[in-house]
Amino acid sequence: MHPRLPERLAMCVVAAVATVLNVLLKLPCTVPGPPDVPRGAFVSRYGCWSDVAALWNSRQLVGHVFPYVTGSQLGNGTVEYPTLTGVWVWLTALPVGSAHGFLLVTGAVAGVLAVVVTLLLVRVAGRRAWIWAATPPLALYAAYNWDLLAVVCTVAGLVVMLRPPSSWSTTTRYAVAGLAFGLGGAFKLYPLMFLAPLAIAALLDQDAVLRVRVRRTVAALGSGVGVVLAANVPFVLVNAPGWLSVFEFQASRPIGASTMSVWYYGLLPWSADLDGPAQQAMGTMSTLATALGIIAVLVVTVVLARRRGSAPWVQSAAALLAVYMVCNKVASPQYVLWLLPFLVVVRISGWWIGAYLVADVCAVVGFFRNTYYQAIGAGTDTWAYQAMTVGIWGRAALLVVFVVFFLRSTVVTRPPGPNTLPVAVRGTVVTEGTP
């Protein structure tokens, strides 16, 4: 059911308030703590860590140097994220001169993005947008990082396909959706995965002749890949080592306790040696597991598309994301922001969603509190360690379940209004005749 205007306004207010709460949670880490308290103990006690404040100092953002174009290592303005995020970080850092001010600016932008995502999700899924606006992730992670930039691009791509303007042709929709996912990939790589199921739908949906379907596929992939090239090639030409430093950092990053990864906690005590042979083995296993999981999901997507005549590409995109989150070597807590829009759009029971959100809260609260206990010498035999363990393994198990659920579920769609086109729920194919 589509919410009335006051309810939509309430959703936006709640999303904005949640973002403000997250900024308030993170602010203590932007200023020096008590001189007699170790920094690690202070940060973990209050759970105020954020990449925003941390990178202000470690990447010398105060110098306002344009990123990627100088040097061959991270720092001097260059951050460990794709180019558009780096440029965004540089732009939002320009008006300020401290980590405190930088977090406030980043939080203000995050609040706007959270509201935009809310309104987009309302357009697709009506009242289910409350799952995004009123659950803990925004209050925990909205300003933790810059992930909302990629999230808004992803949700825009979903809206373009599921609730397009009536004047848009099918080819236009595929091109704009591909552009949105490519733009998201230029902020944070994960939305690039969604180009694959989108292309499968463009090519295999049996609602047009082959020539038209090929044109749609080219439009989707061309726009998506094109925007990624446009966002990266200039930096490669100007300073390839600086651009490459981002990928070298991610490839060489050890799988430690802070990754909150099942690889680390599942292979203790060997994984605790960050320079030991287990690191290379875990890296290889995580890469292979991710690749095999992605291939499996795409094969199932093709099979379902051939059987039904339309590809469940939204469900496939959600399943790809779940595979990546559980198999990747890093399971940063803010990744739940990536998943949450799909939990809104794909018809998953609220009990399963609630279970995942509880596990996520246990993981992050337990992690920070356990880190604090370790900093003060209390060891790991604490409730915090147990909560963290339950949360990490609970999230992983539920993500595996979600892969199956996503591929078996339908997409939540509102009845079409006077300015939108009818949507087939199972395959999410707009049934209009214009190519």
Task: Detail the topology: elements first, then pairings.
Elements lengths: L4 H22 L12 H8 L4 H8 L24 H11 L5 H27 L4 H4 L2 H6 L5 H16 L7 H18 L7 H10 L5 H43 L9 H5 L10 H32 L4 H15 L8 H10 L4 H26 L7 H26 L14 E2 L4 E2 L5
Antiparallel strand pairs: 1-2
Look at the structure and give the mean pLDDT: 91
> Into which percent range does the helicity of residues fall?
55-70%
Our estimate of the beta-strand percent is under 5%
Q: Compute the number of helices.
A: 17
H/E topology pattern: HHHHHHHHHHHHHHHHHEE
The oligomerization state is single chain
The largest pleated sheet is described as: 2 strands, antiparallel
CA radius of gyration: 22 Å
How many E-type strands? 2
Structural class: mainly alpha
The shape is globular
Q: Which stretches of 5+ consecutive residues score pLDDT under 50?
A: 416-435
- Cα distance spanning the termini: 30 Å
Strands in their spatial order, largest beta sheet: 1-2
Please characterize this protein's 3D structure:
With 435 residues, this protein is mainly α. 66% of the residues lie in helices and 1% in strands. The chain contains 17 helices and 2 strands. A two-stranded antiparallel ribbon has the order 1-2. A hairpin with a 4-residue loop joins strand 1 (423-424) and strand 2 (429-430). Helix 13 (277-308) packs antiparallel against helix 14 (313-327) and helix 14 (313-327) packs antiparallel against helix 15 (336-345). It is globular and about 70 Å long. Residues 416-435 have low confidence and may be disordered.
